[in-house]
Amino acid sequence: MRGRVVIAGIGQTQFGALPDRTTISLNAEAVRKALADAGVEKSAVDALFVKFPTSRFEAMYGQTLAGALGIQPRIGGVWDQGGATNISMISFAAMAIENGQCEIAVVTLADNPKTGTRQAYEKAWGEDEVFGWFGVPPGYAMIARRHMGEFGTTSDQLGAIAVACRRHGAANPGAQLRKKLTLDEYRQSRIIASPLRRDDCCLVSDGAAAVVVMSAERARRLGVKAPVPILGFGQGQTSWEVAQRPSLTSTMAAASAKTAFAMAGITPRQVGVAQLYDCFTIAVLMTLEDYGFCTKGEGGRFVEGGRIEFGGELPVNTAGGLLSETGMPGMQLITEGVRQMRGTASLQVPRAEFCVVSNQGGIMHTHSTLILGQPA
Amino acid sequence: MSAETAEFPLPRRDALNTPYWQSLEEGHLSFQRCGECGKAWLPPRRECPHCLSPEWRWERAGGQARLVSWVVYHIAYHAAFKDRLPYTVAVVELAEGPRLISNIVGAGDPEALRIDQDLRLAIEHEHGVAVPRFRPA
Asked: Which residue segment(s) compose the domain that B54 sits in?
C-alpha cells in the first residue's frame, strides 16, 4: 500500500502558554485548520483518531471530542502509546482506509500541561518511590549513562543535538523557544539528573496539531493541493520498565524502522531529512543508531560537526522539535515532515526526496516510524 | 509541602509482595523463581513473565550484584527527597539475574562510579522499613 494513502492536510495552534483553553478547544482549532488546509468539509470526515491529552487521562475522551466537533465518525476513539501514538494512529487510519472501513480520517492531539494539569507526568515509577525513583528525565538519564559507559558517548555529543534543534527552532516563527544555544551555554546548563542537563530536556507546552488522512485517489478527486504520500510505517514495543529491560542502549525502534523502511522500499542512506522524537537528546542519538543511520555506539560521533544541522548531511528536527518548537508529544514532527516534503518549511532542505519521522513514548517503551515522500 | 512535612513514600504491602518486604526485615533480599521454566525475576508478579506459569517460589539472593547504570538527582520530584539532594538511584543486576531499582551508598563521589562494577547488598532502614541498597564491593 506504499503511497496509496496520503496526508492531505495539516493544522496546528500556537505553541507555548495558552491559558483558559481546554484541550477540546485546542483540538477543535487544529482540526478546523487541518480540514481547511486539505480543503475538506467536516461532514466528509468519517474517522477520528485521538491521542488523549498526555497531561490528564479522561475516559471516553474520543467521544467527547467528536461531540465537540459535531461529527459521528464510523471509527473513533483514543489510542495510547504515549508519544508514539500519533504515527501509530496515522498507520491505523491508513490501514482502515485501504480496507474500506473509512475514507477520510482526522488524527489529532492536544495537550495543556503548561497552564493546565500535569497530573499524568507526576506519577511515581511503580513501587520504587522509596528509593526516590521519580520523574521522566531521570529515566532517560539512566539510559544515557549506560550509553556513555558502553560506547564513550559524551555530554558534548548530547549537547550537539540540543544545539541543532535550538538553531532550527530559532528560525521557526511559530516555535515556542526561539533562542539559539551554543555548546558552551549547554555546558553551563544546570544538571537535572546527572548526566542530563536542563537543555537535554524538552519544553513543556500547551497546543494542538492535527492531520487529515485519505487515499491518494480521493485526494486527486478532491483536488488536494499537495498530498504527501505515506510510503512506509512500522511499530515496535520495548515494553519492559527501565530496570527490567535486558539492554538499556538498544530499543525496538530498530524493529519499527525495519518494518517502515521495508514497506517504503528505501534505505536510511536515501533519507534527506529526519524528524526524530527529541523529548531528551539521548532519544535522538539512539534513534539514529536503531534506525541504521549509523551503527550502534556511533551515534555520538554521528551528531558531531553539524551533520544533523541545516546544511549538514542529515538535517534533524528542522522546525526545532520537542526541544525548541513545542514540547507537544510528537505531532509537530509529522507536520514538519509534511512541510519538508511539500517544500514549504521555514528551513527547507533542498533535494530531500524522503523524510523519516520517529515517535516514541514512555521511557523508550514504545516506538512508531513514518516515512513520507514528495507529492506526486 | 516542605521536606519536613512531606510524607515519605514507603512501600505499599499487599498479599503478593509481603514476603519480599518481610524477608528484608529478616536480613535477606528475595526474588521469585519459576517452578516450570526456572527463570528468576523481580519485582513480584503473580505469573512468570517468561512462561506465564503461576507456579513459583521465593529464593534468597546471595548479595552479589553489578551496577547496570545510575543517575544522580539534582532536583527533587518529591518533597520528601529535597534535603537528600544530590542522591543516587541505580539499576542493579543481582548475580542471580533479576534487576531492580535501588540506591548506591558509601560510594563517595557518585560520578566516579563505573558501569558493571561489582556491588554488595547493604540492607538499610528507611523510616523503619528495611530496604535493599547497595555499596561498591
From this structure: 18-136
For residue B2, tell me if it sits in a domain: no
CA distances from A195 to A139, A142, B67, B82 (A): 11, 8, 16, 19
Chain B, 20 to 49: residues with Cβ < 8 Å from chain A are 41-43
Domain locations along chain A: 5-116+204-227, 134-202+230-373
Q: Is residue B67 part of a domain?
A: yes
Q: What is the CATH number of domain A134-202+230-373?
A: 3.40.47.10
What pLDDT band is residue B116 in, cutting at 50, 70 and 90? very high
Q: Is the pLDDT of residue B21 over 80?
A: yes
CB atoms closer than 10 angstroms to residue A346? 17
CATH architecture of A5-116+204-227: 3-Layer(aba) Sandwich (3.40)
Residue A108's nearest CA partner among A74, A70, A69, A72 is A69
First-residue to last-residue Cα distance in chain B:
37
Query: Does the distance separating the beta carbons of B71 and A149 come in below 8 Å?
Result: no
The sheet with strand A354-361 has its strands ordered as A75-79, A47-51, A104-111, A207-215, A5-12, A228-237, A366-373, A354-361, A273-275
Q: Is residue B90 part of a domain?
A: yes
Average pLDDT value for residue range A198-216: 97
Contact across the interface for B86 and A194, Cβ inside 8 Å: yes
Average pLDDT score over chain A: 96
